[in-house]
Amino acid sequence: MGDDSVFGRSFSALVAGHILDVDARRRVLERDLVLHAIARIARYASCERDRRGYVPGKGWAHSAAHTADALAACAQHPVAGEAEWASILAAIADVVDHAEPLIYLEDERLAIAVRSVFRRAGWRRELWNRWLAQFRLPSEWTPEATIRHANRAHLLHWVRLYLSSEDGAGALIREIDELLMDLRMDKG
């Protein structure tokens, strides 16, 4: 972490997302290639450890934000189904489960990707509850655990905001509200 290789990875994910976005409209890529690309982008999102946003003297690495944009494109692609949506949501949970604070609005871009999944999947209790189950209070309040908690809570607040204008999102919003109440530090 900390070298310049994150730029190549981050922008590769962004370009792959753009390719999938174009293919969603034109449908020229083979189904298996699209599914492979979705799987690779989700795996990259889960594995990337360099979450730097702006790198002074070098520019935007922004791996979390670029990956969020790519995941949104994956979710919107017509060949994506329940398995792909589940892997996209798991990848988003992995991105926020990091001891680096998301300070460049990456959490908002990740929320847009979650909304993209909702727009395709709608309310599917098992899919969404499996995703929401990944968000829990830390067992110990270390500095790293506190950052992870903040990343998760900020994401959920953004998701709730973005879903508030979506038809049929009421049940998911209620689940998020309950989770946010459980995640509060002060439950009094």
Q: Which residues form runs of ≥5 with pLDDT under 50?
A: none
- N-to-C order of helices and strands: HHEEHHHHHH
Classify the helix fraction into a percent range.
Answer: 55-70%
The overall pLDDT, averaged over residues, is 96
Gross morphology is globular
Let me know the largest β-sheet: 2 strands, antiparallel
List the strand order in the largest sheet. Answer: 1-2
Q: How many DSSP E strands?
A: 2
- Rounded to the nearest angstrom, the radius of gyration is 16 Å
Strand content: under 5%
Distance between the termini: 41 Å
SS-based structural class? Answer: mainly alpha
Q: Compute the number of helices.
A: 8
Overview of this protein structure:
The chain is mostly helical. The chain has helices spanning 5-26, 31-47, 63-76, 82-96, 106-121, 125-132, 143-163, 170-183; strands spanning 54-55, 59-60. The chain has a two-stranded antiparallel sheet with strand order 1-2. α2 packs parallel to α4. The longest helix is centred in the N-terminal third of the chain and has 22 residues, at 5-26. It is globular and about 50 Å long. The model has no long low-confidence stretch (mean pLDDT 96).
